[in-house]
TrEMBL record:
Cofactor: pyridoxal 5'-phosphate
InterPro entries: Cys/Met-Metab_PyrdxlP-dep_enz, Cys_met_metab_PP, PyrdxlP-dep_Trfase, PyrdxlP-dep_Trfase_major, PyrdxlP-dep_Trfase_small
Protein name as annotated: Trans-sulfuration enzyme family protein
A Pfam match: Cys_Met_Meta_PP
PANTHER family (alphabetical): TRANS-SULFURATION ENZYME FAMILY MEMBER (PTHR11808)
Keywords from the UniProt entry: Pyridoxal phosphate
Gene3D superfamilies: Aspartate Aminotransferase, domain 1 (3.90.1150.10), Type I PLP-dependent aspartate aminotransferase-like (Major domain) (3.40.640.10)
Family of this protein: Belongs to the trans-sulfuration enzymes family.
């Protein structure tokens, strides 16, 4: 096996039976005009046949999935239409009525709805652990626990879960683990290396990297992925051919992008630490992060995600100032999503307000002055200058 930088460029070409350098897009819903009924039946019943019907698979998706499995160090992977399709398909391929799930206080908002509303509708009970406290996972486990659902670093408060600890705990108890690795990207963290069974991503974010597609991926053993594939046939979240192709194209530059993003985010976080108007900076790469030691143990880079808390006399002023800063940023767009080449910033207290009570917001580590920032690959001096002028507007 070559180095990952080389594999990112050269894998995914075996279906390219033309002399072209880049694989073709198979822009079709149905792939197989069979010569005879026996061949047709064989294609229809074979698991993950890449030339049958779009929900079963398609050639570029198979190649892209293989490359992502290589990145995560898992046996296999399965692409889905969105990150949430990956999460719901993975979770529903593990749990059944009567089971109990352990999750965390802090998760991506739509994953929270799945855990708090959807699973209970199907007779699955869910408890929530404090991810920064290993013992709270031990305490939450019951006799009927079949799944521990993790996300690290978590959205938006960048809390970490000790993957080796929870991985070992779950293995000992025979419980399946799923980890959302979207915020880290496989360049910075591979949960499978710490005994986690299933890794899911919103490939819309770092994997795609250009904010021009939505996709998800489920990574794990061949058996796990085959099981998820069967569920995906019914749940319907298959990835379209063009988006699979765009995702493969985006992946070519993953290691370069993530390296630059890691560097920019750390430099910006260090600069924020020196700004009087910034009360607190949260970035896994800063020694001031409450779990920096754990970050160094399980992450190879610290991602482009950071949170800053704008200071103020009271919560109202913090809320108003965070909005002032956001309204004056020129390079950072105030837009949902993250992990692209362009820098984005959002105000979680406004976004999360719709789905969460004040207590839930507090538990999830969200406060009124907080801005969540996704750092891109622009020049670092321009990124700093943008925040410098926007912060100055608070004292105008
Ligand atoms: C965006 C995101 C998701 C959902 O992904 P979609 O592609 O939008 O469905 C899940 N988890 C995390 C951590 C995310 O940031």
């Amino acid at each position: 096996m070559s180095h990952i930088e080389t594999d990112l460029i050269h894998s995914g070409k075996t279906f390219n039976n033309t002399p072209a350098v880049v694989p073709p897009i198979y822009q079709t819903a149905t792939y197989y005009a069979a010569d005879n009924a026996v061949d047709y039946a064989k294609a229809a019943t074979e698991a993950r046949h890449p030339y049958f019907y779009h929900r079963h698979g398609n050639p570029v998706s198979s190649q892209t999935a293989e490359l992502i499995a290589r990145l995560e160090g898992t046996e296999a992977a399965l692409l889905t239409a969105t990150g949430m399709a990956a999460i719901s398909t993975a979770v529903l391929s593990v749990v059944k009525a009567g089971d109990h799930v352990v999750a965390q206080h802090s998760h991506y908002s739509a994953a929270n709805i799945l855990l708090k509303e959807l699973l209970p509708q199907f007779g699955v009970e869910v408890s929530f652990a404090d991810q920064s406290d290993n013992a709270s996972f031990d305490k939450a486990i019951k006799a009927n626990t079949t799944l521990i659902y993790l996300e690290t670093p978590s959205n938006p408060n960048l809390a970490l879960t000790d993957l080796a600890y929870v991985g070992a705990l779950a293995q000992k108890a025979g419980i399946t683990t799923v980890c959302d690795n979207t915020f880290a990207s496989p360049i910075n963290q591979r949960p499978g290396d710490f005994g986690i069974d299933i890794v899911v991503h919103s490939a819309t974010k770092y994997l795609g990297g250009h904010s021009d597609l939505t996709a998800g991926v489920i990574c794990g053993s061949q058996a796990v992925v085959d099981k998820a594939w069967k569920k995906l046939l019914s749940l319907g979240g298959a990835l379209a051919p063009f988006d699979s192709w765009l995702l493969l194209r985006g992946l070519r530059t993953l290691s370069l992008r993530v390296r630059q993003i890691n560097e920019n985010a750390l430099a910006l976080a260090r600069w924020f630490e020196k700004q009087p108007l910034v009360k607190r900076v949260l970035h896994c790469g800063l020694p001031s992060h409450p779990q920096h030691g754990l970050a160094k143990q399980q992450m190879r880079g610290f991602t482009g995600m950071l949170c800053v808390e704008i200071d103020g006399e009271d919560e109202q002023e913090q809320f108003a100032r965070a909005q002032t800063v956001l309204n004056h940023l020129r390079i950072f767009a105030n837009a949902a999503s993250l992990g692209g080449v362009e820098s984005l910033a959002v105000h979680p207290a406004s976004m999360w307000g719709m789905h969460h009570s004040p207590e839930q917001k507090q538990k999830a580590g969200i406060n009124d002055g907080m801005l969540r920032i996704s750092v891109g690959i622009e020049h670092i001096e321009d990124l700093i200058a943008d925040f410098e002028q926007a912060l100055a507007k608070c004292s105008d």
